[in-house]
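Session log. Operator J.P. requested a structure for one protein chain; no other inputs attached. Running the standard single-chain path with token output.
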Amino acid sequence: MRFDSFDHLLRHFAEQSPDAPALRYEKETLSFAEFYDRVRARAEELRGEGKTCLGLLCDGSLDNVVEIFAANLAGLQLVLLDASLESEVLKTLIRYTDVDALWGDEDLKEELALSLMPGVKDGKGKILFFTSGTTERSKAVVLTDHSLCQSAWNGSAKLPLAPEDTLLCLLPLGHVFGFVCGLLWGLSCGSCVALGRGQRHYFDDCAFYRPTAVSVVPLLLGFLVKMRCINPEMKLVLVGAGDCPPALLAAAGAMGLRVSFGYGLTETSSGVAISVKGDPYAMEVCPDDTITIAEDGEILIEAPTCMMQGYYKRPDATRAVLQDGVFHTGDLGMFDEDGLLHITGRKKDMLVLPDGTKIFLPEYESAVMQALGHTELAVTLRDEKPVLVFSGEGDAKAIAGKLRDMMRTLPRGQQITDILMTDEPLPRTATGKIKRWELQQKVSEKA
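Structure written below.
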């Protein structure tokens, strides 16, 4: 069923399926009626506090979910924040988005209190998520409960859940993929959503909750498969928010799982295409969306029900990507003979050399990973030449030796000129993507 708002969604199931389980967290279970009652009671409290913009230091708990829905019902603007970020970064984000109240860890709230702003006048219904920031500093994307509900319907029209299903939510709620595909997907189908208990429980959440479906990023899928954490009841895995190696999808399939791959962006309130059968990389476009491929291979999206209102207080950045209702994704793709969408790369995930030659990083780094048998690496530029950043133990000379045969197949200008060793993990987003701009900044500072 298509819902117009969070209130519409919760009210519907509270009336139609009041005793059905809506949320589980640790040993507590809330029915849809109990969930809606708790949300409405908290919304009334929030209305009395006189605040206008709530920043949520998301921890994925039951109280966190109640607060999100309650603040929306109370008419507040919501800003979904990653509590794991450094406090100085959080202070900047809070000031940028006009947060005048905080929810979350009490010690962190106290540390951030001086950054609170006067608030907003027109924030009702707005929910701000930050872009993953893999190629530049994150921007706040203005979505609404309406666009998020439409996105949940859009995806479930292709990949529905049943009321008998239990969806395990392991992803951070501050990321739009985690919020829509880890939480809203299940609730909008009348299914029970089991809220993961944090990273230290990745080993045992499947055994504890016995879910039938889960949404994951590739890194998390790799962990679950490698550690064999999948429970016998699990039948569906939705993978998104990053490139996923074919071998990993094959390994998941060999465990008897149905694996679907989704493609979407924060700016489109999450998914716009999803694979439903056969090749997991061959995706059907969701019903509300229209996708075309530009002459240079860029994916262009029209998503009238799910499109962002814009980047918060950044009209120039909005106009640069959203033109006449068409979103220019920066991703590269193609349609096959069956009309199914394939993602082939990213325009920004490339290095442009002084002679105009382009190195497409996903393909380049994949070949390097295969040659070295190591995945914690990235390629970037230093002095306008490609260099390899290698995180982990090893010897630069030995690594160069292993790469020699591969490098010989490339033009001289595209060959790696130096290997930078580090014992620090590569900077990544919450969904596992490399923060290209941050990596480039670190390399430039050490030059």
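Operator note: Residues 357-446 form a domain with the GMP Synthetase; Chain A, domain 3 fold (CATH 3.30.300.30).
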